[in-house]
Amino acid sequence: MARILVQTADFDTGAELARLTAGRSDIGGIGCFVGTVRDTAAGRKIAALTLEHYPAMTERALAGIAAEAERRWDLLGCTVIHRVGRLLPGEPIVLVLAASAHRQAALEATAFLIDWLKTKAPFWKKEELADGVAAWVEAREADTQAAARW
Amino acid sequence: MSDALPLTVLYFAWLRERTGVTEERVIAPPGIASVAALVDWLAGRSAGHAAAFADRAVVRCAVNQEFADPATPLHAGDEVAFFPPVTGG
C-alpha cells in the first residue's frame, strides 16, 4: 500500500526514506526522485510557481498510478508526496520513492511513477514571471512521450 | 430523448479563469447524454464559457473523478470536471 500525500507543506526526504525502511531488512534499494522549482522557463526568469489540483481526484489518481507500479514491479514500499500552492524557485515540489529487493525495479518504478504522474494526475502549474506576468504552463509533448514509453 | 440531467460541473486552471466559475450546479436539458453534448451546451452559457471551450482539442475532462473523453456518457448526479492537460510533477 503506497503512502500518498498532497500537501502545501514541505516534505522531509530523509524522514520519508527512514519511514519506508523502518523495521525491515528485506529492502535492497530505494529509488528516489525529488522535483524542484526551476528558476527559468523558456529563457524567462520565474518568480514563483503556483500548483492547483482537483482535490477530490488527486489522491485517487496518485494511488492508481502507485498501484500500477506495484503491479509491474516487485515493490516493498512506495511513497508519493506532491505539494500544492505557491512555491518559490529551489523549493521541492514532488517526492517519489520506490523500494525493492533490487535496484533495477526500484529505479524503473521511480521513473515510471514520475513519468505517469506528470501526465495522469490532476495538477496544473501557473508560472509567475519576474516581470509580474503569470501564465499557465502548457503540457509538453516530451512528457507525453516519456509516459508512453512504459 | 433522455431526461434533464442535474450535474455538478467543476473548472480548473484557465478554464476556471475564463468561465469565472469554480463549481456550478446545472440542469442539462433533455438530449444531453455525453460529455461532448454537455460541452456544446455549456459553451452557450456565457461569453466566458464560450472562451473556455473555444479550443476543445485542449480541454480535458473527468467524470466522477475519473478521466473521461467526449463520448463518455453522463448520468444524473455526475460530477463533471473540465481542465487543461495536466502539468504536475
Task: Briefly say what this structure is.
The complex is a heterodimer of chains A (150) and B (89). Chain A is an alpha+beta fold and 150 residues long. Chain A is built from 4 helices and 9 strands, in the order E-H-E-E-E-H-E-E-E-H-E-E-H.
Descriptive overview:
The complex is a heterodimer of chains A (150) and B (89). Chain A is an alpha+beta fold. Chain A has one domain: Alpha-Beta Complex (Aldehyde Oxidoreductase, domain 3). Chain A is built from 4 helices and 9 strands. In chain A, strands 3, 4, 6, 8 and 9 form a 5-stranded antiparallel beta sheet that branches. Chain A has a 4-stranded mixed beta sheet with strand order 1-5-7-2, sandwiched between helices. Chain A starts with a strand and ends with a helix. By secondary structure, chain B is α+β, with helices and mostly antiparallel strands. Chain B has a single domain (5-83), classed as Beta-grasp domain (Ubiquitin-like (UB roll), Roll), CATH 3.10.20.30. Chain B is 24% helix and 28% strand. Chain B is built from 3 helices and 5 strands; from the N terminus they run E-H-E-H-H-E-E-E. A 5-stranded mixed beta sheet of chain B has the order 2-1-5-3-4. Chain B starts with a strand and ends in a 6-residue tail after the last strand.
